[in-house]
């Protein structure tokens, strides 16, 4: 709790998210009373899961760096496990997959000690070369290219991309005097999730013109524009509280988070369509799996990280 | 004392392993009977199967759940035998019995009479990972002797990938556990086996996981 006293801005931001959750819950309960025939249980489960996720995320972020890195590495593990469970893998590669799991503690160790260059190159260089090498040593060539490609894609997405959220926390606090690394983490994660919701809601209300009919028929231009506008607006409001971004920068970053979030979501949708599954898992009631929830973050986290580092660190 | 050891083993080792490291995706949990007698009949691919199935019930029920295990596999080593009999509380079954007149399922039948829940693998062996082979008819003969005991068909997928036969390295994959509608003695062994086979085929149909190439 000392941490929150040191970072009053983070406490205010958590309070704002809490207020949003209360508002969503009230709207849901009113709707349930007014239109009981509507199919609302799914929305109810989704809001309940939002409460739980907001609680776990806020607690993990509030009690210091070590707990948050542990939390993020566990999230990476769940995401990678989900990915390896829905994609085809080769029997021969069992041991190679074990090495792939081992990249998680190693990558988060680099983050923990703040070794920036190693954090940047470990997965895209060393793991990228190492995993196919293991597959070669196993000796099974049938399906080699597909297996090596899928495994590297999974590790890049679930370990490397998601790891950027964790590295925001170990950046030197001097770069963001208003709220430190925790403020940046909170900003990008909450904005990405709010953008998901904004795109979903404006798509439901105004959606007409499909963007990617073959990948995700629910995604419309109206939804995307609604997401870009509302996310830019929220970024503009939240940036002075949590980030060193100027007004122009915050609006630009908000729009970028909206567009990148859309692409992250669409990419996981393309994988699901390819595999002919609806959700990546069942871990989060009303949402699906872990990957269904962090899909947008796989794009927004690295982009936000590198923009902020370029501008302020 | 041993009962406490058993609960601690499941609380501190088995459940974290099953629900955190591996991750069970349980469907149809409402079908699972909480009290016996019942015959839980699942496909068998891995040593983890029994640990996964025993994780389905609340810890306080553990005393009533009795996995049926091959005596020739689990009993020769005294340490494994002690662990199997006292912690896993298996009912050993003689797969290669010499005396053809004795009933190999007598202990199982007695357990059902005491109102316990049997966990049994009608395939008789783990076999090739993630492949279901023909079912043996023991469950039907038990159902005939205990028509009040339901057969609970359970199909599991993923544990054979996590820890296949003959391998000691655990590689986590999400595991599906699909529990089907209860079925009862159908008047003949063939009819009962047929309805079990149909139930298992339905569960396999519902389970969407990629093939293991």
Can you describe this structure?
The complex is a heterodimer of chains A (313) and B (213). Helices cover 78% and strands 0% of the residues of chain A. In chain A, 43% of the residues are buried. The mean pLDDT of chain A is 92. Chain A contains 12 helices and no strands. Chain A has a domain at 75-170. The radius of gyration of chain A is 20 Å and the shape is globular. Chain A has 313 residues and is mainly alpha-helical. Chain A has helices spanning 2-6, 8-34, 41-62, 65-86, 94-113, 116-138, 144-170, 180-206, 221-242, 247-275, 290-294, 297-312. The longest helix of chain A is centred in the C-terminal third of the chain and has 29 residues, at 247-275. Chain B starts with a helix and ends in a 7-residue tail after the last helix. Chain B is α/β, with parallel strands linked by helices. A 7-stranded mixed β-sheet of chain B has the order 1-7-6-2-5-3-4, sandwiched between helices. Chain A binds chain B through residues 78, 81-82, 84-91, 94-95, 97-98, 101, 142-143, 275-277, 281-283, and chain B through 23, 25, 129, 158, 161, 164, 167, 169, 171-174, 208-213.
């Amino acid at each position: 709790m000392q941490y929150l006293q040191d970072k009053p801005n983070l406490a205010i931001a958590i309070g704002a998210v809490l207020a949003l959750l209360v508002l969503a819950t009230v709207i849901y309960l009113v709707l349930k009373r007014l239109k009981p025939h509507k199919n609302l249980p799914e929305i109810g489960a989704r809001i309940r899961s939002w409460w739980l996720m907001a609680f776990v995320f806020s607690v993990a972020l509030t009690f210091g760096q070590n707990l948050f890195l542990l939390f993020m590495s566990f999230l990476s593990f769940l995401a990678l496990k989900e990915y390896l469970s829905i994609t085809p893998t080769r029997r021969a590669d069992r041991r190679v997959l074990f090495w792939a799991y081992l990249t998680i503690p190693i990558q988060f160790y680099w983050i923990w000690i703040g070794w920036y260059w190693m954090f940047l190159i470990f997965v895209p260089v060393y793991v990228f070369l190492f995993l196919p090498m293991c597959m070669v040593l196993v000796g099974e060539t049938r399906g080699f290219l597909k297996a090596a490609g899928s495994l590297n894609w999974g590790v890049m997405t679930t370990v490397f991309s998601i790891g950027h959220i964790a590295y925001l926390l170990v950046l030197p606090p001097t770069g963001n005097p208003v709220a430190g690394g925790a403020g940046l983490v909170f900003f990008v994660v909450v904005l990405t999730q709010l953008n998901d919701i904004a795109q979903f809601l404006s798509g439901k209300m105004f959606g007409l013109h499909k963007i990617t009919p073959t990948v995700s028929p629910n995604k419309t231009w109206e939804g995307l524009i609604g997401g870009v506008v509302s996310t830019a607006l929220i970024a503009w409001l939240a940036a002075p509280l949590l980030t060193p971004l100027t007004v122009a920068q915050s609006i630009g970053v908000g729009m970028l988070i909206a567009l990148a979030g859309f692409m992250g979501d669409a990419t996981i949708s393309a994988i699901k369509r390819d595999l002919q599954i609806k959700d990546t898992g069942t871990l989060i009631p009303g949402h699906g799996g872990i990957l269904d929830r962090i899909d947008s973050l796989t794009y927004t986290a690295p982009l936000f990280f590198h923009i902020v580092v370029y501008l302020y660190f | 004392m041993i009962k406490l050891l058993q609960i601690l083993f499941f609380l501190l080792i088995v459940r974290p392993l099953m629900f955190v490291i591996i991750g069970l995706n349980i469907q149809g949990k409402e079908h699972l009977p909480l009290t016996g007698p019942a015959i839980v009949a699942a496909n068998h691919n891995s040593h983890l199967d029994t640990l996964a199935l025993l994780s389905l019930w609340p810890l306080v029920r553990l005393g009533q759940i009795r996995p049926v295990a091959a005596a020739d596999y689990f009993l020769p080593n005294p340490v494994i035998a002690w662990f199997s009999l006292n912690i896993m509380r298996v009912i050993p079954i003689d797969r290669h019995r010499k005396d053809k007149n004795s009933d190999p399922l007598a202990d199982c039948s007695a357990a059902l009479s005491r109102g316990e829940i049997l966990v049994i693998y009608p395939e008789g062996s783990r076999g090739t990972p993630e492949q279901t082979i023909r079912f043996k008819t023991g469950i039907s003969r038990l159902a005939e002797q205990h028509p009040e005991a339901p057969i609970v068909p359970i199909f599991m997928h993923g544990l054979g990938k996590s820890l296949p036969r003959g391998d000691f390295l655990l590689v986590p994959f999400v595991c599906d556990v699909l529990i089907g509608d209860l079925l009862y003695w159908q008047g003949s062994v063939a009819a009962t086996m047929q309805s079990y086979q149909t139930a298992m085929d339905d569960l396999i149909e519902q389970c969407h996981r990629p093939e293991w190439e």
